[in-house]
Amino acid sequence: MKSLESRLHIGLGISLFVLIGAVWWSGHEAMHRTADAFVLSRLEHDAEGLVGALTRRADGHLEVGNQRLTPVYHQPFSGHYFVIETVDGQRIRSRSLWDQDLADRPLSPGTSAHWRAIGPDQQRLLVWEGGYHLDGIEFALAIAEDVTALDRALAFIEQLFAGLAIGGLVIMLLVQRFVVRRAFAALAPVYQDIERLESGQTLALTERVPSEILPLVRKLNRLLLHFAQRLERSRTVAGNLAHSIKGPLSLLRQQLKDPDLNIAQAPRQTLIDQVERLRQLAERQLKRARLAGAGGAGVRFNPNAELPTLARLLGRIHAPKILDIQLDLRTSGLLSVDREDMLELLGNLLDNACKWAIAHVRCSVTVLGDEIVIRVEDDGPGCSEHDIAAITERGVRLDEQISGHGLGLAIAREIVESYQGRIRFHPASTLAGLCAEIRLPVGDGQWPSPC
């Protein structure tokens, strides 16, 4: 079970159930013991009165003076009964027992006992019995009282208490649910900051949270700051490294092309190709650093804010060619894809389109259902079906005369596949050149996880 609220409800419910059960059992025992003690005290007093009413006849048997008995012992099934039994078998029963009898137990003088029994007319009897010795005769006197009405009254009180306890339990669970939800509501600013963190609108979580989770929030903020600083340092180092090796690589390339250099043509060309490859990689890292800008890791992509800047940058890179880069952006707000990934993807596609375009490049971004659809077209010469099949292979470049490193489209394909998306190339429908079409799945606004 993962829900904290459910755990709290179950824990409190079990605790209250055990507590209320213990209170109910204690109350039950206390009420019954108190009621029985009161009735037994009265029965004991009545027994003493009966003993006082006994006399020994001339034949040696005991006799009860009827004139000293209360009327309840003469009324049949009145609920008040007694039985006197001597050691020699004489048995005296109250007239209220009518033709019924009352079970008793043999007791020695000076001892007593009490118990519950079912009496005449299914009456619930509380029986008290004592052992006596009178004028040389040992006998036991059992006296009983119907406590059916008393038991019903106690049962009613118990049911009332049980109902109140169940109602109290339900009310306490509801109150606890309200309190727990109020406590969780205090975390709402953190949830909002997490969403703003995803969209790049903030760099840290708010510390206006309950004191119990404030240490956790502060640790997360320190971790976020540490990651942001590490990312910035990595970008800076990559950019500086790429920038610093460009000069030596250019010098090395020029020297390799010097005809006075005593080296065979085949190894010369191999070295020139490898140097050129290193220079292109350095340019790529520099471009990535420029495109990434100041955004943090995990920032969402806003086409309306990012693509105009990217189009202007590519326009300057491909000068003096005069290009009309048209943007058709049918989205609003942030898309649930990583900003840096999209800048690299669109940067590569637009850069390739700008290389081949004569004058026009068109880029459209729209959301259709649960997909982000991106199309980049140019008015260049286009590609044959054979070239389209090989165009995304790493390092393949169709025209060696055009500046480029041959990695852009392959990298674009890898980015698309990491989002479990699709990329395909086909003749452009509006500009007559090549069209790159990308479809990235986005479901319910959730971030598509790169593989």
UniProtKB/TrEMBL annotation:
InterPro entries: HATPase_C_sf, HATPase_dom, His_kinase_dom, Sig_transdc_His_kin-like_C, TCS_sensor_his_kinase. PROSITE patterns: HIS_KIN (PS50109). The keyword Cell cycle does not apply. GO terms for molecular function: protein histidine kinase activity. The keyword Membrane applies. The chain crosses the membrane at residues 6-25, 160-179. It comes from the Bacteria. This is histidine kinase. It comes from Thiorhodovibrio frisius.
